[in-house]
Recover the amino acids of this structure.
């Protein structure tokens, strides 16, 4: 399993709109091949900062299949207007549990 962590900064005052956009986009992730679920976390110390965590079966499920899909374009159309800058994305794999 791969965990995608997208660190997202949103426009000040746009937090509610961003959260609504992510809620609308949730089915796009849920229907994506290889997606095992997602969560949106809001950073307590910095209210305009979020971490979107998405579980993928493989790295390619995210970087090739999802990013190359119409669902990704829809996700960006919904959430992108709220970004102050492009998300910083990292992928991790569990090495010890």
């Amino acid at each position: 399993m791969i965990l995608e962590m997208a660190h997202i900064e949103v426009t000040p005052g746009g937090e509610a709109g961003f959260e609504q956009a992510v809620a609308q986009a949730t089915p796009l992730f849920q229907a994506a091949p290889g997606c095992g679920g997602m969560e949106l976390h809001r950073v307590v110390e910095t209210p305009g900062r979020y971490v979107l965590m998405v579980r993928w079966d493989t790295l390619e499920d995210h970087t090739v299949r999802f990013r190359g899909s119409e669902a990704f374009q829809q996700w960006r159309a919904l959430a992108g207007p709220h970004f102050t800058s492009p998300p910083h994305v990292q992928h991790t794999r569990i090495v010890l549990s």
User: Anything to note?
Assistant: The longest helix spans residues 15-30.
